[in-house]
Amino acid sequence: MRNFAYYPGCSGLGTSMEYDKSTRAVCKALGINLMDINDWSCCGSTPAHTVDHLLSSALSGRNLALAEEMEAEAMITPCPSCLSNLKGTVHRLSDRGFRHKVNNLLEKPVQRTMPVKSVLQILDEEVGSRELAERLPEKPLRGLKVATYYGCIMNRPPEVMQFDDHEHPMAMDRLMQALGAEVLPFPLKVECCGASFGIPRKDVVATLSGRLLDTAQALGAHAMVTACPLCQMNLDLRQGQAASVMGKEFNMPVFYYTQLIGVALGLPQKELGLSKLCVKPSIAFDAMRSNREQEPVSKSAGKKKPETKENS
Q1: How far is CA 273 from CA 150, 174, 268, in A?
Q2: Radius of gyration of the chain measured on its C-alpha atoms
Q3: Quick one: pLDDT at residue 300?
Q4: Which residue has the higher pLDDT, 113 or 300?
Q5: Global pTM?
Q6: What residues contact 50, with CB distance under 8 A and at least 6 apart?
Q7: 3-state class of 104 per DSSP?
Q8: Which GO terms describe its molecular function (predicted)?
């Protein structure tokens, strides 16, 4: 079993609890040991680095220093915002003078020895689509059409994030395809959803998120799949606002990719937090089943359907 220092991020204990729950459940099922970082604290999220790079780096540096004390291969997080702050700090700490200033603010100095990666990167590189496909030859998500949405910071800037293609990422695509889902050619996979402007400028978020939802819907997607808590919130919770701005009706489930992996693995739904989604996930699963029923009998015979009942 591989050991990783796990940083859930603040949203993982609040607005995106289902992301944290499904991440833990999937990693456990796939033999990835997540070791919680003792006494971790906020990395500064989106606002901190826009105000003060030194203090922002100290916030992330504190968590990096705690992770470095653990016997782990790398520090990993499911949240792109946390990932950006942590990896950005590691990048800035390459400057010895800056690292000295940061360490002067910390009880424990950060050595910059612990690699930082996303959970998505670990699942893509350490588990991989081939292993998932071999483990689940019945293709549990067969019939489900998805639009994978990465958001604007998961892979950017490329010299800092150092994972996947920053204009056309494919990690989630590979994982979803391995599970049998049809990944649609979604052209806006790295466009911004409006991020934290959902509070001061709801109109901006509604317009940007509405464009994403409208494009996914036009492609025939049954659901959108994301790896970002803020993106998921804007696309799911604010779907009604987006519909009003766009003058269209949306009823698009927005999953975390870990939730769909969990469904494919047959994990209990209570461990995946599907009940927390605003748009009912059953809409996508019903469409998936309907799609299967239209397949030739030779393709669908003997195939196992993923259990999607909430209390399984």
Answers
A1: 20, 23, 9
A2: 20
A3: 45
A4: 113
A5: 0.93
A6: none
A7: coil
A8: CoB--CoM heterodisulfide reductase activity
CATH code at 138-293: 3.40.50.11810
Nearest by Cα to 18 from 276, 198, 228, 283 = 276
For residue 127, CA distances in Å to 30, 32, 137, 177, 251 come to 8, 9, 15, 14, 33
From residue 133, alpha-carbon distances to 176, 212, 227, 269, 285 in Å are 10, 29, 20, 21, 20
Burial class (CB in 10 A: 0-12, 13-18, 19+), 118: buried
Instruction: Give me the mean pLDDT over the 198-220 stretch.
Output: 95
> Does domain 2-119 bear CATH number 1.20.1050.140?
yes
Q: Which helix (H) or strand (E) holds 225?
A: strand 223-226
The answer to whether 60 and 86 have CB atoms below 8 angstroms apart is yes
pLDDT at 196: 87
Domain ranges, ordered by start, for the chain: 2-119, 138-293
Give residue-wise pLDDT tens across range 255-278: 999 999 999 999 999 999 999 999
Write the DSSP string, 14-69. Answer: TTTHHHHHHHHHHHHHTTEEEEEPTT-----HHHHHHH-HHHHHHHHHHHHHHHHT
Token reading at 17: 């609890």
Encoded tokens for 270: 């209570």
Residue-wise pLDDT for 69-124, tens only, equals: 999 999 999 999 999 999 999 999 999 999 999 999 999 999 988 999 999 999 99
How far apart (Å, rounded) are the C-alpha atoms in residues 6 and 75?
6
Map tokens 């930082």 to a residue.
116
